[in-house]
Design brief:
single chain; eight-stranded mixed sheet; about 25% helix; binds flavin-adenine dinucleotide
Length: about 800
């Protein structure tokens, strides 16, 4: 066994084997995998091992495509071919029109990744799968590449190829401890001796938290028991001249695929069970949980009704094993929060289908610092601090119960809520707030006109359309108040803070006291890493000179990691998070100044407090830091208040607002207004796949300033020219907003992808942002959009259709 290597991957299931193989593919051969038992002895050996191309966003579709292509190649290996039923096809069933709309959207999204799903009716489903009945069925989504693979052969093949490329695999070698040294390297302690290395990867399946504990980390991953059974031979299958397609059923929560001449049927029962919550038996190896078919009777009936052949055939094997879930259902693949040189690939609930792709994206991140796709949907840092064991288990149960029921727009599932609130949450609830959840924070989405009001989550505009319109109108015509909680705020102090930020931001950084600016941070590839509001607070009785670095609600761990990593030896910079301590009250509208002047001393005139100013003051008797910035496009103030004084500030503003018709508004109104202004959202429109030029942010780049992170790469990218350009589109459609991922078309050709969409109430336009082929980015260009299966006209318009001259905002 080596005593020193570059990377130690811990765990020899699909996650670990795929990571090891892909590290060698990215050019690192001095890498090892350590496995406590034999390869695949965790969950992988007993997986149903279905491999679908279906995903909720383009990153997931892209990584699954990678799996499929890789597995196909392995199945055709002339020396060691593996068993892979590639292209049996699969159907996701639907019995409501709303589900069909969703499938049409996912088909539109996948098309942009060169993946071609079909949305088919019930009769076509039955034609393609002769064993199913069409009762209570409208249709389904057809994935032509669906199939299944032999999980053990797959892992062996990946390990074999990795070894061939120089990697080593140590079986029967449990990791017992992890020590991180001052220089951020690691010692991995095993039963057979220590291995020093630069980087560790946790790929330990359901034992993720045993290894997490060795580095002092709790990962938000919980295991559920999950069962399938295998039937005896079914004559109709034996006699069929093709393999049966796979079935996934959100109506009765089961899946089904052909296994030899019988069927394999797996269940996601409502009466489900967590597993291993109080520790896992050391000897649970190559093992299963006891059979418990009684638990799945609720879903069995649905499966039998859909496939009557099941009633006439015996069951010969039952498999019940642990499967892992995270709090939002997507795996954790990437850097471990708060740790250096530590990565994970965990929480895989569909690890056989996805594992090839996850290992690929993780290896790219380890070797190059970034992957080819934006990996935020997988980033382990996307939950900040609230994801404890209880919350994880509640969300795991909810996700398991809804396995095949995708989230609809504006659907906010109830488990594990509320996790993060402010003193205002109960008040806003009493005012009729319908809450959305942002990284655990309860945020008012809109205010219900009456207590019984409900919206039906839909891909079309829903019942709240006019309610949100009224909120926007109130802001535009008078004044509105909105709570923005959980906004990330890092306080940066120290003599070198400005120099430090200047090195990280690609444009000019405001240095003047009392001023606020917007900056973009690039990665080493010159693509967008982060967006920050940079506010310079003067020295005062509240503290010394400091910068408030403000960024998106879930970005706290992500941005903190990035900033911390770039503090140079000897540089005087300290960073602390105030994210959980302060909340923003946004006061917006033509009467905003009057309201603020009523409850806060000082000169709030345009001359006394112009656009992009900052001032420490009191609102009522709440200490506040007021910034003259606006995401709505109206005259607006962001009032930052410590949570202890939030209620006091709120009361003062409400009272002052009475005379001016102040109304509350929520996140949906904000979304509409920011799109009318051309403002962008981190991880919707600002992603690591594009640079600031492609994203329409040239004005925030200053190449002539000194060096900054990503500068050389950006210059090289600029010379090559853009791959895509972000544009604003006006849609010829009034029944549905554009959804992120939807394809922009020119005839039959996909020429772009939507990042955001919303109705613009002030301009009366259905708006979308999309990255499109650069030659099509000119204003006035006409394209089409596949909007949930409807082909609608989309025209490029200049950004910021509302107040394009920015006169209102600066008034
Ligand atoms: C019944 C069932 C059906 C499923 N069906 C499908 C399906 O159809 N399609 C699909 O895509 N997915 C399916 N899954 C999920 C899929 O099987 C898992 O997502 C996948 O196998 C997880 O792989 P892994 O490598 O993350 O974990 P594991 O396979 O559990 O591997 C983790 C490895 O880490 C090792 N390890 C742990 N601790 C240590 C240590 N201290 N030192 C060294 N090694 C250690 C373990 O021994 C183990 O080998 C199914 C799961 C179940 C339970």
């Amino acid at each position: 066994m080596k005593s020193r290597t570059k990377v130690v991957v811990i765990g020899g299931g699909i996650a670990g084997c795929s990571t090891l193989y892909h590290l060698t593919q990215e050019g690192w051969s001095d890498v090892v995998l350590v496995e406590r038992n034999e390869l695949t002895s965790g969950t992988t050996w007993h997986s149903a091992a279905q491999v679908t191309n279906f995903g909720m966003n383009q990153t997931m579709v892209g990584l699954k495509t990678h799996s499929i292509n890789l597995y196909k190649e392995l199945s055709e290996d002339p020396e060691y071919p593996i068993n892979y039923h590639h292209g049996d096809g699969g159907i996701r069933l639907a019995n409501t029109e709303a589900q069909m709309q969703g499938y049409r959207h996912f088909a539109s999204m996948a098309r942009g990744m060169n993946v071609h799903f079909e949305v088919i009716d019930a009769a076509e489903c039955a034609r393609r799968h002769p064993l199913i009945s069409t009762d209570n069925l409208i249709g389904g989504l057809w994935d032509p590449l669906d199939g299944d693979i032999d999980p053990a052969q797959l892992c062996q093949a990946l390990a074999r190829r990795a070894r061939k490329a120089g990697a080593e695999v140590y079986r029967n070698t449990p990791v017992t401890g992890l020590i991180q040294h001052q220089d951020d390297t690691w010692t991995v302690q095993t039963d057979k001796g220590d291995i020093d290395c630069d980087i560790v990867v946790n790929a330990c399946g359901y034992r993720v938290n045993e290894v997490g504990a060795m580095m002092g980390v709790h990962h938000p991953v919980a295991s559920m028991e999950h069962q399938y059974f295998l039937t005896e031979e079914i004559p109709a299958i034996k006699d069929a001249r093709h393999r049966m397609p796979l079935i996934r059923c959100p109506i009765s929560d089961y899946y089904c695929r052909q296994e030899k001449h019988g069927l394999l049927v797996g269940f996601y029962e409502q009466d489900c069970k967590t597993w291993g919550m109080d520790g896992i038996d050391h000897n649970f190896v190559n093992a299963l949980c006891p059979d418990d078919l009684d638990r799945v009777t609720d879903v069995l009936e649905g499966a039998f009704a859909r496939m009557p052949a099941l009633m006439e055939v015996g069951i010969h094997t039952i498999v019940n094993g642990p499967i892992t879930y995270t709090i939002d259902g997507a795996p954790l693949v990437g850097p471990i929060p708060g740790k250096r040189n530590a990565f994970c690939i965990i929480g895989l609930r569909a690890g056989l289908g996805e594992g090839g792709g996850h290992g690929w994206l993780l290896a790219q991140q380890i070797v190059h610092g970034e992957a080819c796709y934006d990996t935020w949907c997988l980033d382990p840092r996307r939950f900040t601090g609230h994801a404890n064991v209880e919350l994880t288990a509640l969300k795991a149960i909810e996700d398991y119960q809804n396995e095949f029921r995708f989230h609809f727009p504006h659907e906010h599932r109830p488990a594990g809520r509320p996790a993060k609130t402010t003193p205002l949450t109960p008040l806003l609830a009493a005012e009729g707030a319908d809450f959305t959840v942002v990284n655990g924070w309860e945020r008012a989405d809109y205010f219900k006109p009456d207590p019984e009001f409900r919206h039906t989550p839909s891909f079309h505009f829903d019942e709240a359309f006019d309610v949100v319109g009224a909120e926007v109108r109130a802001v535009q015509q008078a004044v509105g108040l909105c709570e923005v909680n959980g906004f990330n705020r890092l306080e940066i102090t120290g003599a070198d803070r400005q120099r430090f930020l200047d090195r990280l931001v690609c444009g000019a950084v405001t240095k003047r006291d009392g001023r606020v600016g917007l900056g973009y941070l690039l990665n080493h590839h010159g693509r967008i890493k982060a967006e920050a509001t940079i506010a310079n607070l003067p020295a005062s009785d509240r503290g010394p000179h400091r910068v408030w670095y403000g960024s998106a609600a879930a970005s706290e761990f992500h941005d903190m990691d990035w900033l911390q990593q770039h503090i140079q030896q000897g540089e005087h910079v300290q960073i602390r998070s105030l994210t959980n301590d302060q909340t923003i009250l946004v006061l917006a509208g033509p009467k905003a100044r009057d309201v603020l002047a009523t409850c806060a001393r000082g000169d709030w005139s345009n001359e006394g407090f112009p656009w992009l100013s900052l001032r420490e003051c009191f609102v009522g008797f709440a200490p506040a830091t007021v910034m003259r910035v606006s995401f709505s496009g109206e005259l607006a103030y962001e009032i930052h208040v410590p949570n202890a004084s939030l209620y006091a500030a709120y009361l003062a503003l409400r009272q002052a607002g009475e005379a001016h018709g102040l109304k509350l508004f929520g996140a949906r109104a904000v979304e509409s207004m920011r799109m009318e202004k051309g403002f962008l959202h981190w991880k919707a429109d600002l992603i690591t796949e594009f640079d600031p030029y492609e994203t329409g942010l040239s004005r925030f780049v200053k190449l002539e300033k000194g060096d900054f992170v990503g500068k050389d790469a950006l210059i090289a990218r600029k010379a090559k020219g853009p791959q895509r350009r972000l544009v604003t589109l006006q849609l010829d459609c009034d029944h549905a907003p554009a959804h992120a991922g939807a394809s922009v078309m020119l005839g039959d050709r996909v020429v772009g992808t939507v990042t955001s969409g919303a109705w613009g109430y002030r301009v009366g336009m259905n708006l979308a942002y999309a990255f499109v082929a650069p030659e099509l980015a000119e204003n006035g260009n006409q394209m089409q959009m596949d909007l949930c299966g409807d082909i609608v006209q989309a025209r490029v318009i200049p950004p910021s259709p509302y107040d394009p001259g920015f006169e209102i905002i600066k008034s």
